[in-house]
């Protein structure tokens, strides 16, 4: 589904998507309010969402949509100069950020990766994300307990929830609880972001 208020850009994106194999465009919306009205009827797997739109912008629409459908995959369409929204939208659980200047192959790659449950960020956006993460000091987060630090260390070493549970003689549900608290305390939207954040802020030491 495409959510974009500029008809010319929306039409161009529509043609790109319709030319892709295995991808079907099921709906279009001109603003966030119209998108939310269509969302329950159309139930798309992936949404390409503009940020600045009349009636309701993409930020508010994204937040409301992910509350209703947490598994919905939303790729934000952005222009340079809109970087201020980057980190807050990642925290809300979006699946990617893509510049409106992206070429056909990048659009295809973004949709493919997101459909596989991965995140996609345009290379230029990746640089901004790294910069923003580096600006966050570990002093800004709530202190971690020794147990949370232990779980975080094992996550960063690549152990699965089941493996961590075995190592710490705990249930998988208990470890999932620790992971949820770690995500909340660090303000990260996913385990991958948590690992990046932990390593960059030296919250754990990986040496055995």
CATH class of the largest domain: Alpha Beta
Provide the β-strand percentage band.
Answer: 5-15%
Please tell me what the overall shape is: elongated
Number of helices: 10
DSSP E strands, number: 6
For the sheet with most strands, the description reads:
6 strands, parallel
Distance between the termini: 47 Å
Low-confidence stretches: none
Alpha carbon gyration radius: 19 Å
The CATH architecture name of the largest domain reads 3-Layer(aba) Sandwich
Helical amount among residues, as a percent range? Answer: 40-55%
Description:
This protein has 2 domains: 2-134, 3-Layer(aba) Sandwich (Rossmann fold), CATH 3.40.50; 138-200, Winged helix-like DNA-binding domain superfamily/Winged helix DNA-binding domain (Arc Repressor Mutant, subunit A), CATH 1.10.10.10. The protein is 52% helix and 10% strand. The protein contains 10 helices and 6 strands. The mean pLDDT is 86.
Characteristics of this structure?
208 residues, 10% strand, Rossmann fold, alpha/beta, 10 helices
């Amino acid at each position: 589904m495409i959510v974009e208020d500029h008809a010319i850009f929306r039409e161009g994106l529509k043609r790109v998507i319709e030319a892709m194999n295995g991808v079907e465009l099921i709906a279009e919306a001109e603003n966030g309010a119209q998108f939310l009205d269509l969302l329950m009827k159309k139930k798309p797997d992936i949404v390409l969402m503009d940020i600045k739109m009349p009636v309701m912008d993409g930020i508010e629409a994204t937040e409301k949509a992910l509350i209703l459908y947490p598994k919905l995959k939303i790729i934000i369409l952005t222009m340079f100069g809109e970087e201020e929204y980057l980190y807050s939208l990642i925290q809300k659980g979006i699946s990617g950020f893509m510049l409106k200047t992206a070429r056909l192959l990048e659009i295809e790659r973004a949709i493919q990766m997101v459909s596989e449950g991965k995140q996609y960020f345009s290379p230029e956006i990746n640089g901004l994300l790294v910069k923003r993460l580096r600006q966050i000091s570990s002093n800004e987060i709530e202190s971690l307990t020794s147990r949370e630090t232990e779980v975080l260390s094992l996550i960063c070493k690549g152990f699965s929830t089941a493996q961590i549970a075995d190592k710490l003689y705990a249930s998988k549900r208990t470890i999932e609880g620790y992971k949820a608290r770690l995500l909340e305390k660090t303000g990260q939207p996913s385990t991958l972001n948590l690992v990046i954040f932990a390593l960059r802020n030296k919250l754990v030491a990986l040496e055995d």
